[in-house]
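Input record (Table S2, row 298):
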Amino acid sequence: NTHAKILDGKATAQQIRNELKTKVDALYKLYAMRPGLAVVLVGSRKDSQTYVRNKHRFAKEVGLESFNHDLPESVTEARLLQVIDELNQDPRVHGILVQLPLPAHISTEKVLQRIDVSKDVDGFHAENVGRLCTLKGEPGFIPCTPQGCLELLDRYNIQIQGKHAVVLGRSNIVGIPAAMLLLRRNATVSICHSFTENLSEEVSKADILIAAIGKPEWISGHWLKPNSVVIDVGINAVKDVNTSRGYRLVGDVRWEEAYPRVRCITPVPGGIGPMTVAMLLKNTVKAFEQRTRGESLS
Ligand code: NDP
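Output record (NDP complex):
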């Protein structure tokens, strides 16, 4: 639907999962094997537990094998690396995801770089980062959240080429790979961060805005270019005594102000969150296909 005002990530993610399920069933007929996703969770952060539960649930829904490895907060780095090594070796596992953030006593970089590149479905291994940033040539695995942003734009037929895209945030997980993906698609890209002077002026130039700063309702709708496209990646919990949980989730953009002004916008929740999980499943199926194709060639 090219005229929709709300970019419905929840519905689009469901559609993608349906497509993946068809594909996974066909692969099973061919290979008598299912793509396997291993998710490693360290500690007991409530938000991480929720994300991991969702990944497990949706992996099952599309017919993937899903392996959960829950390790205590106190686990040593050496033990965690050993678990990664075992998963690297395990032929039932095609994709490995380590839920972030890790406890402070563990080097995140060391852990992420230990994951076999061919199983790096989060796309954080240096080789996959390098391939994404090498504009000529095919990327390897692309990080799930920015990939979900682009997939949503594509499914709503939103033109990227030649447009001015502004990315708010420069993390390895969202901002940087989002900017690289937009650049690959021939957008003119600005990246803003906490040292950016006059954020509102930068925001006002965006035909496409990707907001990923993690600050509740920080971006005023009045800053936005009229008729722009807004992808709100932020997921922020704010206190709300009127809800049973005592909080509600909001994005980085002030929805009430933005909605009347924009051409289209993603809701929070129900926007990029579900798209991210769908891309993880897609990457896992891709990892399986590459592995099985490689084995049938050798
Ligand atoms: P990080 O905290 O790693 O990065 C935040 C970035 O925003 C940094 O680059 C920081 O700048 C910048 N920033 C912070 N405050 C401002 C400001 N006032 N003005 C301009 N720039 C600012 O967060 P992540 O990238 O991991 O996540 C961002 C948001 O996206 C969070 O709300 C997170 O919950 C959400 N998220 C959602 C996902 C999903 O599935 N939908 C997945 C991943 C994240 P500097 O570099 O200078 O510090």
